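Below is a filled-in request sheet from our internal design queue. Each sheet records the structural input a requester submitted and the sequence that came back. We keep these sheets so that new team members can see what a complete request looks like end to end.

REQUESTER: design group, bay 2
PRIORITY: normal
MODE: inverse folding
CHAIN LENGTH: 345
BACKBONE (tokenized):
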């Protein structure tokens, strides 16, 4: 390690848990973050500052004004330009640490692309907002034998657990046997119940600390519990999760979420939007923009990553990878018909 790096990471090297040997390992290691929202932006910021060698960020969404209260890598200009979160995060993180290789990918993780996007990393980090995607990450991590860290926050509450294939219980052990924490009701998301930025920040910080231990080769220091906290009541909890001796994923190795067909449509994070993803080819956004100008769509706006327009009372956002997010409905049938009428035609 040269003097410049030794100086940059001096406070981490001084910490006896890491030392210079641990820092060397962090610099050579890689992480992939799925979902760059309240938790993901904090985790990515911490790991890039800590000097992780390579960070890939996969996110399907774009920055909106309501994100700015907690998604700490984004600025008002990102929301004005409706930049994809993966791109806005990549730009900001490059300015924070130019020696880290950062790769923002605008995509939705599905059974079709998960293995390709998540292979060959030292750790997989959860920044997602739904259990279906988390169980997909769990299947991928176990099948590829990569450690991964579950993290979630809603209201003033957050929870996290580190999963190491073969050594610890997995997320399916937790969720599919009813050990799921009661505070995380299935119906609750940050879009329906709200979330405090501090709750996401605490959980993301614990996630980043666990990732740092894995990247530095200090797995003996992992906390080994389901850790939860409520920043409103000030209550912290750390409980052991029992391995399910008949677990579908980590014992029987039945990867139902990985083997499932890619969902043709997904209702998103309870915010009155439906995502459609059924095109196998990329969309030409400028051609679509010209076509919409002649149709009854209003306020057609696009940047190099996405195109957005209004068909009152709906707002449609179309990504270059072929996905569309239709805001203003939770009905897949309405979303499909709008998609067929304005995008697929
Ligand atoms: Zn399991």
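RETURNED SEQUENCE:
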């Amino acid at each position: 390690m040269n003097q410049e790096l030794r100086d940059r990471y001096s406070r981490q090297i001084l910490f006896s848990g890491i030392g210079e040997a641990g820092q060397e390992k962090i610099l050579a290691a890689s992480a992939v973050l799925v979902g760059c929202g309240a938790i993901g932006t904090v985790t990515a910021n911490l790991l890039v500052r800590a000097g992780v060698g390579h960070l890939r960020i996969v996110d399907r969404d774009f920055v909106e004004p309501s994100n700015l209260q907690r998604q700490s890598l984004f600025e008002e200009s990102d929301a004005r330009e409706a930049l994809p979160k993966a791109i806005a995060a990549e730009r900001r993180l490059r300015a924070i640490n130019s020696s880290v290789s950062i790769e923002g990918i605008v995509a939705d993780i599905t059974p079709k692309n998960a293995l390709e996007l998540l292979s060959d990393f030292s750790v997989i980090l959860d920044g997602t907002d739904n259990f279906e995607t988390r169980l997909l990450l769990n299947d991928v991590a176990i099948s590829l034998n990569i450690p991964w860290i579950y993290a979630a926050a809603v209201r003033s509450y957050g929870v996290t657990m580190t999963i190491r294939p073969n050594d610890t219980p997995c997320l399916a052990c937790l969720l599919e046997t009813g050990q799921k924490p009661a505070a995380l009701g299935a119906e609750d998301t940050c879009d329906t119940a709200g979330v405090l930025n501090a709750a996401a920040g605490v959980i993301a910080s614990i996630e980043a600390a666990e990732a740092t231990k894995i990247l530095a080769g200090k797995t003996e220091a992992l906390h080994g519990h389901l850790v939860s906290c409520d920043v409103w009541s000030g209550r912290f909890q750390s409980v052991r999760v029992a391995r399910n001796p008949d677990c579908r994923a980590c014992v029987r190795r039945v990867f139902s979420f990985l083997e499932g067909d890619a969902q043709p449509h997904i209702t998103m994070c309870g915010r009155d939007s439906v995502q459609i993803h059924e095109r196998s080819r990329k969309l030409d956004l400028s051609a679509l923009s010209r076509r919409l100008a002649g149709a009854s769509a209003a306020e057609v706006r696009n940047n190099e990553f996405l195109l957005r327009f209004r068909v009152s009372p709906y707002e449609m956002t179309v990504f270059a990878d072929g996905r569309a997010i239709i805001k203003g409905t939770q009905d897949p049938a309405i979303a499909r018909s709008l998609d067929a009428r304005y995008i697929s035609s």
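SHEET NOTES:
- Residues 169-170, 172-173, 244, 247, 249-250 surround zinc ion (CB under 6 Å).
- The chain has a mean pLDDT of 90.
FILED BY: M.R.
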